[in-house]
Amino acid sequence: MSGRARNGESSVYFSESDGKWHGWVTVGVKPNGAPDRRHRMGADEDEVRAKVRALEKLRDNGKAPKAGRPPTVEKWFTTWMDTECARKVADGSMAPRTLDDYRSKCRLYVFPAMGKLRIDKVEPEHLDKLYLDLLNRSLAPSTVLKVHRIMSRGLKVAMQRTRLFHVNPASLLDAPAVEEPEIAPLTIEETRRLLVEAGNRRNGARWAVALAQGVRQGEALGLRWEYVDLDTAEMKIWWQLQRLTWRHGCDDPHACGEKYHRKKCKASCTVHKHYKRGCPKPCPKDCTDHAKACPKRTGGGLIIRAPKSRRNKRTISMPPQLVSLLRAHRAAQAREKLKAGELWEDNDLVFCQENGKPIDPRADWEEFKDILSAADIRDARVHDARHTTGAMMIAAKVNPRVVMEVLGHSQMRVTERYTKVASSLVADAAEKMGDQLWG
Q1: Under 8 Å between Cβ of 67 and 57
Q2: What percent of the chain lies above the pLDDT cut of 90?
Q3: For 336, left (φ over 0), alpha (ψ -120 to 50), or beta?
Q4: At residue 2, does pLDDT exceed 70?
Q5: Per-residue model confidence as pLDDT tens digits over 38-93
Q6: How far apart are the first and last CA of the chain?
Q7: Are 256 and 361 contacting, i.e. CB atoms less than 8 angstroms apart?
Q8: Smallest Cα–Cα separation from 322: which of 399, 223, 218?
Q9: Residue 388 near residue 419 (C-beta atoms within 8 A)
Q10: Which H/E stretch holds residue 43?
Q11: Per-residue pLDDT at 283
Q12: Quick check: helix, strand or coil at residue 139?
């Protein structure tokens, strides 16, 4: 019995050679111009005709799945990051660090857990188990939330492009809950001690800029003289310094980094006994890390780039005291440039090394820790200087909308966090006033 149809039409027929019913549906055209025909098969005619009608309905609604074997989670997410995400980095709509973070979290957490699973077989239960396992490994909830956002975005694009499934499984479960991190700004007394200690050091004005302007670390290290007007006391935060992760440019990343592969420490290891996290984890058998040592490495190192968000690109006014500090700093830098001569690398950076090269964020972090120790100030993060700025502005009764603009926050709720901690600064100021008036 035959039910073959004309070209372009669906057909259902029985084949005596295998005793099965077969159906063929034309769903479109292949890239080479040939008809894209899909096959359905079964032991019963009604069963096959039902499959054909279902495929025709998907085709008519523009939802017919792409031809070929469905990719695995690892294959799809790798392709997505290497194509769409890489394009967004190239056109500036995605920060390079964001793509680095995507690759890192997929490699460390997603691929080992569900990389071999077909993309169209992913269920909410798989994601729930992934997040629970990560939390049980003592990963920070904020890290698990980032993993969820990567999965949600990647699966959404897979749903739209492959048409292998029609509901994003990540949208069927609640995102991992994350508590708002506690803000710990420095007190007024600590801030003044920090500025005094920093003032005795090279690039000491860097920390005055951080505390007076509330700039992020990358924004301070990427600040250029071209965007600092000492006559009008305006500073344009238009650039930032970032360190990007190196990638292998060789054909065999595993063999390239073989001599750097970490082995599992013995139970009696004493080398890492003082490490906060204990012995480092050994490299997996198929490790492709250690791209920094690759002779053909690409895409990494320090770069200066524009911020991704328009809100982060801002112009702010400087207090007179900061203008004076920057004038003195520029004069000192001019003397360094003259001394360095041909060794000077002119990047027009406000804060740089003695040869004009950018300051590594790690070295900047170490300098901050050293200043805290020398000034007898409690341990704090570099980012806490920015929190100090926000809290002090709120304590000084600066309009929260102005604080939002100065700090470059995208949402008011982020700025409002400072209202909870500003009360301690207000109390500190009140106590100092009492001491001044009544001793």
Answers
A1: no
A2: 51
A3: alpha
A4: no
A5: 888 998 999 999 988 888 887 887 777 766 678 999 999 999 999 999 999 888 88
A6: 108
A7: no
A8: 223
A9: no
A10: none
A11: 85
A12: coil
Residues, the chain: 439
If phi over 0 gives left and psi between -120 and 50 gives alpha, with beta otherwise, what is residue 406? alpha
Joined tokens for residue 25 = 């549906």
Task: Give the tokens for residue 381.
Answer: 């993060």
| CA angle (159, 82, 91) in 5-degree steps | 95
Residue that has been written with the tokens 């005619």 in this structure: 45
Residue 364 contacts residue 382 (beta carbons within 8 Å):
yes
Q: Which residues contact 333 (CB under 8 A, 6 or more apart)?
A: 352
Contact at 8 Å (CB) between 186 and 385? yes
Q: How far is CA 343 from CA 144, 192, 210, 346, in A?
A: 46, 36, 28, 9
Q: What is d(CA 212, CA 327) in angstroms, rounded to the nearest whole number?
A: 16
Report the alpha-carbon distance of residue 77 to residue 112 in Å, rounded: 13
Task: Please state, in angstroms and rounded to a whole number, the distance separating the CA atoms of residues 241 and 306.
Answer: 9
